[in-house]
Structures are given as C-alpha cells and as structure tokens.
Amino acid sequence: MATPTGTIIPANLEIVEEQQPSLTYGIDFDRGRVVGMVDGLEAVKQAVFLILQTERYRYLIYTPDYGSELEGLIGRDPLYVQSEIKRRIREALMQDDRIEDVMNFSIRFDGDNALVRFTVVSAFGNFEAEQEVGGGV
Prior knowledge:
Helices cover 22% and strands 31% of the residues. It is an alpha+beta fold. The protein has a three-stranded antiparallel sheet with strand order 3-4-5, covered by helices on one side. It has a two-stranded antiparallel ribbon with strand order 1-2. It is extended, with a radius of gyration of 19 Å. The mean pLDDT is 89.
C-alpha cells in the first residue's frame, strides 16, 4: 500500500482531546449480577476492584496492560513484599486513564497475609481502597 501524496496537514490544525464516558455495567459482586449502569467515581471504584482481582497475563481476553501481578508476591519475604507491592498496585491501576495517582500506602502483615490500604486519585475524585494479598506472604 502506498502512502498518499499531495496531502498537507495545516500547521495550525487544532486537535481537541475529549474525555470518553466511563459509563459501564454495574456489578453486584455479592449476588453475582449486573445491576444497571454506573458512571464516574463508582465506575472507577469498580474498575480498581476488577483490575486488582485479575492476574495479569493469565487470560487471553485481556491486553497485557490489564490486571495486576500480585500472586507473584505470595510466599516471598515480607521486606520484599513491602517494597514491591506498592509498585505493582500503582503500575496496574495507572493503566486506567481515569486514575491520576495512587498514594498513601499502608501495609499490615498478619501471618501469611498482607492487607494494603491506599488512596486512589481519579478524575472524578479520591477514594480509599484496599487489597489483601495472602497465602504465605
């Protein structure tokens, strides 16, 4: 296929970026049902939950950018987990363009489990989230 010739893109062409809607199906995880639609902050909260529940590279339906890599921390030294878990959660969530930052991490170890709490800064507002990593941490 040849490249078109004779076309000139004007230097003063204005490019306008538009925020895509975040409207998506709302999921009631307790009952395992779709319960209407959610948008804005609620859609981002749901996305954070789903990203952290999905192990990256495991399912071919998702792109390699989707999901988290938290299972690789199970059974590792707690000092390693403490340093690595922040990076892995932040890296997973920052793939969503509605999320601007992930900060204020606190990690509590309880036997074989680690409970991570953090703040998600999104285009729709901030919220607190948590993730448990378990099974030999």
